Amino acid sequence: MVELPGPDAHFPGRAPIDAYGNGGFRFADMSHRGSLICLPVGIYAWEMAEGDPLTVDAFSRVLYAEGVEFLLVGTGRDLRPLPAPLKAAFRARGISSDSMGTGAAIRTYNIMLGESRPVAAALIAV
């Protein structure tokens, strides 16, 4: 397995998430320890841990990405609602957002990806 080597590293393309847990994810014959942001243009390492604040700055890569209409936020083991300022920032960019536990977000992301929908996911590692 190959691992994404740093915070600016990315997998150039879309891929379903094959497995998660033990602090990381597996996708596209790669593994990554830590959180991920999955966009239409690639999958990126994300400096976010369970319990970190869900701020507009933390989601800047998503907010300025092209081709995202839906964002699934996997908030870790437990559901955490998105703060109002963050939801407003997504709405201002035309992005519908929904938060859920990371496992549910992965399952939903994989289904939407299989349907070729304009989806992104921000997944906090568990």
Search tags:
alpha/beta, 126 residues, 21% helix, four-stranded mixed sheet, six-stranded mixed sheet
Report on this model:
The structure is a single chain. It contains three helices and ten strands, in the order E-E-E-E-E-E-E-H-E-H-E-H-E. It has helices spanning 60-63, 84-92, 102-114, and strands spanning 2-3, 10-11, 17-21, 24-27, 30-33, 35-39, 42-46, 70-74, 96-100, 119-123. The longest helix is centred in the last third of the chain and has 13 residues, at 102-114.
Helix-strand layout with pairing:
Elements: E1 2-3, E2 10-11, E3 17-21, E4 24-27, E5 30-33, E6 35-39, E7 42-46, H1 60-63, E8 70-74, H2 84-92, E9 96-100, H3 102-114, E10 119-123
Parallel strand pairs: 1-5, 8-9, 8-10
Antiparallel strand pairs: 2-7, 3-4, 4-5, 6-7, 6-10
Radius of gyration: 13 Å
Structural class, from secondary structure content? alpha/beta
What oligomerization state is this entry in? single chain
| Tally of individual helices | 3
What is the percentage of strand-forming residues? 25-35%
What is the straight-line distance between the termini? 19 Å
Mean pLDDT: 93
Main beta-sheet annotation:
6 strands, mixed
Low-confidence stretches: none
Helix and strand sequence: EEEEEEEHEHEHE
Q: What general form does the structure show? A: globular
| Strand arrangement across the biggest beta sheet | 2-7-6-10-8-9
DSSP E strands, number: 10
- State the helicity in percent bands: 10-25%
